[in-house]
Design goal:
This protein has helices spanning 30-40, 63-72, 90-94, 98-101, 108-116, 166-175, 189-197, and strands spanning 4-7, 13-17, 22-23, 51-57, 77-83, 123-126, 129-134, 147-152, 176-184, 201-206, 213-218. The protein has 221 residues and is an alpha/beta fold. The longest helix is centred in the N-terminal third of the chain and has 11 residues, at 30-40. It is globular, with a radius of gyration of 16 Å.
Amino acid sequence: MKREIIITDDGSTTIRIPEWDENYHSTHGAIQEAKHVFIKNGLDLFQNHDSISILEIGFGTGLNAFITFLETINKEKVNYVGVEAYPISKEEITEMNYVSELEAEKYHEVFDKMHSCNWENKQTIFENFHLTKRKQLFQDIEDKSQFDLIYFDAFGFPLQPELWSEIIFKKMFDALLPNGVLVTYACRTSIKNAMLSVGFSIEKLPGAPGKREMLRATKNV
């Protein structure tokens, strides 16, 4: 399936799949969306913790992982698990401009290592940042009480509604520790209802540019 690199409105790159009319990130700005949804409304809730365990649903270009790394340098210890069924190519990785757009040239090797390290094995990316990439369908996730935070960054509901179902959100609920949090860019009523049905408490929050609202779900047990 053809994929092409495009520039989003904040100058950062993303991948577009023309056949699906779908993008990996918001065309209004890949970096600003990641910072708003996953950092401001997710990671920042845990800034006073000594350590945090994160599950990302849709590792994709590595943008969320890299920004998380930048936000946690010399702070909390991070155990980061990224699930991706269809990894992007080495050629596509080299065309991502996140290091320069985030003014993080000092950590270019870290971004490269996130993509070059082996799949399925826990890797030390930086002294406080450990990464495990799992090549896995979301439907096959079976983690139990492992994570403080989930970045739910799957393709949109119109394209893959099965990824936004009660079945998947039950897996997410089970994967979280008590009082764990899931954040996602989406805010469709059916998604909210699926989350509620498996036990999550839901908050509607202002969305990133181009989106009116987003959802944050908490496992209050």
